[in-house]
Design brief:
The protein has nine helices and 14 strands. It is α/β, with parallel strands linked by helices. It folds into two domains: 236 residues, Type I PLP-dependent aspartate aminotransferase-like (Major domain) (Aspartate Aminotransferase, domain 2); 103 residues, Aspartate Aminotransferase, domain 1 (Alpha-Beta Complex), CATH 3.90.1150.10. The protein has a seven-stranded mixed sheet, with helices on both faces. A three-stranded antiparallel sheet has the order 11-12-14, with helices on one face. The chain has a two-stranded parallel sheet with strand order 1-13. The two termini are 31 Å apart.
Length: 357
């Protein structure tokens, strides 16, 4: 079978070694004779896996002792509610930069006053707002660092006068992050950290306990910190694969090495989009995501979209269809995507251009 070049936005391409080790664990978890999905989460070997996974997060991102890492079910969409439950007392501010940022805002508005401090919807979310002022009377300010649907990204740690909360679902583990600047970093694992089915939260412990409302036990971050992510049965399989993915990331040089590779992949692909007469990028150049490269057919070639999709498929390229809400194309070049994969897409685009010259 030919090697596929996979650009799925999520669940995404994962390191082959993580997949292979997960297959083996499904047969026999750590020599116990029991499948990973049949073990008790109180098994010593499982507790060791949880501890290792948490330790890898802390090592790779240089997470200070002021913060704790927890693993939760429900994905980032459930985290939208966790955030408001644990932090919203009087008023919260959100940077509305896309579909997921807007959904996070809407979830908070169901519990109290939450406002968009700035918004880029006026130009179909193709840029990151600038020049806005963060009010100092907010309980917290929420940002979504990477916009998977429209292809924009915030790649610096902003200075914030109030507790800063970030959804980093799709660009966590791709650059150095000054975790000390954040009250909370959270996200779904299924982009760079593992498979679907588990979410991560990196929580500054002293940022909790500030709200007067009753927080349902399952939605209280303090409970999950105290119980070391095992208040209820954790999603063992996704956490195991996450741990294997983090081990792989460490083995290839960690965040510093992967950041160089990720930026190189994005540079190569954007250069081709800008050069090729048949395509154009959709995000402002200053705010382009290095994780989700969004583009469309150039003016005059709009009727070639389906033809290019089929052409790419014939070249063993899969997963480049744009989100259903915007159409076009989207190449998600997460950590496990290789330079070889990106070059295959570039070659395909060049070949299609020659074919239609």
């Amino acid at each position: 079978m030919a090697k596929l070049h996979i650009f799925n936005a999520g669940p995404c391409l994962l390191p082959q070694v993580a997949i292979d080790n997960a297959i083996e664990a499904l047969r026999d978890f750590k020599g116990t004779g029991v499948s990973l999905i049949s073990i008790s989460h109180r098994t010593k070997g499982w507790e060791e896996t949880m501890d290792e996974c948490r330790a890898l997060w802390k090592e790779l991102l240089n997470i200070p002792d002021t913060h704790e890492v927890v693993f939760l079910g429900g994905g980032a969409s459930m985290e939208f509610l966790y955030v408001a439950m644990n932090y919203l007392e009087k008023k919260a501010g959100y940077l509305d930069t896309g579909v997921w940022a807007h959904k996070a805002l809407k979830e908070a508005q169901g519990l109290g006053e939450a406002v968009a401090v700035a918004c880029s919807k006026d130009r179909n979310y193709c840029y990151i707002p600038k020049g806005y002022e963060i009010p100092t009377d907010l309980d917290y300010f929420h940002i979504t660092t990477n916009n998977t649907i429209y292809g924009t990204e915030i790649r610096t740690d902003i200075d914030c006068p109030v507790p800063l909360i970030a959804d980093m679902s799709s660009d966590i583990l791709t650059r150095k992050v000054d975790v000390s600047k954040y009250a909370l970093i959270y996200g779904g694992a299924q982009k760079n950290a593992g498979p679907a089915g588990v979410a991560f939260a990196i929580i500054r412990k002293d940022s909790l306990g500030k709200v007067s409302r009753y927080i349902p036990t399952m939605l209280d971050y303090r409970v999950h910190i105290d119980k070391q992510s095992m208040f209820n049965t954790p999603p063992v399989f996704p956490i195991f694969v996450m741990n294997e993915t983090l081990k792989w990331l460490k083995s290839v040089g960690g965040i510093e090495a992967i950041q160089v590779q990720d930026e190189k992949k994005a540079e190569i692909l954007y250069a081709e989009i800008d050069r090729n007469t048949m395509f154009r990028g959709t995000a402002d150049k200053a705010d382009r995501s290095i994780m989700n490269v969004c583009f469309v057919m150039a003016e005059g070639y709009e009727d070639k979209q389906d033809e290019f999709m089929e052409f790419a498929k014939s070249r063993d390229i899969v997963g480049i269809k744009g989100h259903r809400s915007v159409g076009g194309f989207r190449a998600s070049i997460y950590n496990a995507c290789t330079l070889e994969d990106v070059q295959a897409l570039v070659d395909c685009m060049q070949e299609f251009e020659k074919k239609n010259a």
